[in-house]
Amino acid sequence: MQSKTFNLVIAGVGGQGLITLLQVLAQAAMDKGLEVRTSELHGLSQRGGSVSVHIRLGEKVYSPMIPKRQANLVIALEMQEALNAVPFASGRTTFLINKYQSPTMGQGVSESYIKSAITGITKKSVFLSANEITEKELGNSVVSGSFFLGYAITKGLIPFTENDIKEAIKKVMPEKHWDINMKTIDFAKQYHEK
Amino acid sequence: MKDVLKKSGKAILLGNEAIVRGALESGVQFVSTYPGTPASEIGNTFFHIAKTAGVYFEFSINEKTALEAGVGASFSNLKTLVAMKNFGLNVAADALMPFCYTGTGKKGPTVIVVADDPSCHSSAQSEQNSRPFAYMAHIPILEPSDPQECKDYIKLGFEISEKLSLPVMVRLTTRVAHQKMPVVLNRIGAQRPSRGFVKDQNRFITMPPRVLEQHRELLDKIEKIKEIAEKSPINKIHVGAKSKKIGIITSGVSYLYVREALLQLNLNLPILKLGFFHPLPEKKIKNFIKGLNKVLVVEELEPFLEKEVNILAKQANPKLEILGKDVLSEVGELDPDKVASAIAKLAGKKFKILESRTKRVKHLPRFCTGWPTCPYWKLFAAVKQVAPKNTVFGGDIGCYMMAALPPHNLYNYLSCMGSSLGIAHGVKKATIKTGKKQKVIAFIGDGTFFHAGIPAVMNIVYNKSNPLIIILDNRITAMTGHQPNPGMGKTGMSEDVPQIKIEEILKALRVKHIKVIDPETEYAQLTKTIKRFLTKDEVSVIISKRICGLLAQRALKKKNAK
Lengths: 194, 562
Ligand SMILES: Cc1ncc(C[n+]2csc(CCOP(=O)(O)OP(=O)(O)O)c2C)c(N)n1
Known about the structure:
By secondary structure, chain A is α/β, with parallel strands linked by helices. Helix content of chain A is 34%, strand content 18%. Thiamine diphosphate is lined by residues 34-36, 63, 85, 87-88, 91, 397-400, 417, 445-448, 472, 474, 476-480 of chain B.
């Protein structure tokens, strides 16, 4: 039974700003009067290691961890990490995957393996070179997370409007980071993959 | 983090931040901690807000001194919070036992927060379940399941502590400490004026014959708390469909998985959710199981709760069938699916955990890259370059632990904080005794050296063995999130204090061969010294001194921004 909860997995490696993304989404959810819970990992995993974090929102949310196969959306900020979110995915899941790879020690997997693994689960997957795009268009790849948020808003993949997210960014991030993140959201809105 | 000080309304808080908020709402006055994930954000948050909030906060040098500082503050009638990770409680245990006997100061209620880490997300060493400290020390234990409860239980903990002059423990697990949700904020509590240390020999001295009386008094206190637990709303029954005569007993984050799983399975069963682990509301449990044919106990790690239910069932309902660790693993954390599978077995339903066959990828944590880089890259390169093949390498706890992983694969043993040195001494003695001339190199971070390394060096010097000790002085306690330590001249209140120099400690301990080397700029010197020190008959120490790469990068960014 798929509950009415919205479930998002963000996968990546330590240092990619996953926790900040979660905080923005959690703030936006609270401001809309929704229940929300996140499950995060701090610590050892931050030193470039695998990190997966969960956020769930809706009218009633119990477990901070998403039950298997119930993610509505997976955002993988590192391509190989998308595979670690697979247990939470089903045919109804959308994958947004950053075409960026952080090296693993000799046990990495190829882009083609990842593509076939993901498309074997769901028809809804998008691969974007967010690091390159943001580096080129906005001068800094640290906003690749916000780029995916903007992209997800435009495609209706998260239950928030552009305004919800922008307001939440202002509450969560220090003022000096507002400008570039707002610009990133605006840019992502009009971005069309070629 | 800033939301912790928000006046009112709601804020999205991490479990650990909610702990801080709960303490502030209770009017906490004195806070001490030693960092350790998953409890680290409690200290980090106080580190940020202590001055603004008017709370005394310190990073003690280890958990024992943290707890002892807390005991002193409590004896002096300050409202006190002490926080640590699970292993920390082992270090502090010697101080915990008598503290439960003396009890707190009359107006010095004390809450000790201890965070366990099922599945060892941020722990090596062991998958420790800290619950049995309740049996050993007779300390009451409360177990919240989410950030809102973190806040509420801290406040309740202070109330109980004050009522019975007994410290109270709040036990977290990773999925509680690192869970976020909107938390309702109440007013930050006013701090009581301090009454100072009020002398009371009868209370604060634990010596026979008085200590036996104190033992009795402690057991009596626990009986009184049992009465509180019987009536407490945090041990609550969710009435479900009674027709099936089955029910669930659970606590902590497992409770949330139970609710989730029941939703998935479309079941409505009675649940007894326990906020107290110790003492248990025995009457409430008996009443709950009386009318049941079957009960499932859902708890992580060892079946402590299940055993208690077993005993209570003998009196209240001998025919009761009790499920627990026969359907749930004793190793690793639970999750909604594991719990759903157990409940399905209880209810005679079908539920299959869906495993996927897709390859998983593991990005192992590694020393930080970028420039300035992590000083450990060069250090371990040098060691690998010159140390003889049969050298025994002892690892310890900190970022340098990652030298156990590829590409280094270095260590031959790794245990608890400070033990690289303590064990090195034993290995050296043993290999000398058996005529095997194995070299031993033991690694230890600056934070770990201050925490537990000094007594081990003293033992090595006093009992005469000769490992080569390499102290990785990266000027901070890095792994747990960059907390200051005595070597760097900053306190938890952000005051400047004199730096305690490791080489001066070593000199005072009569270590003969000491060398301070920067592994990045003095690489040749480093390899030469390792070779030379490995031939010494006495213990020798290299202090590999260079600032943590992340810190250096942050400092550089700041400078460039100016
Ligand atoms: C008794 C105990 N307390 C706390 C911890 C958590 N802990 C893990 S690593 C670490 C810090 C080590 O710092 P340091 O030795 O300076 O090494 P660095 O991370 O800077 O390399 C701590 C406190 C622990 N493992 N055991």
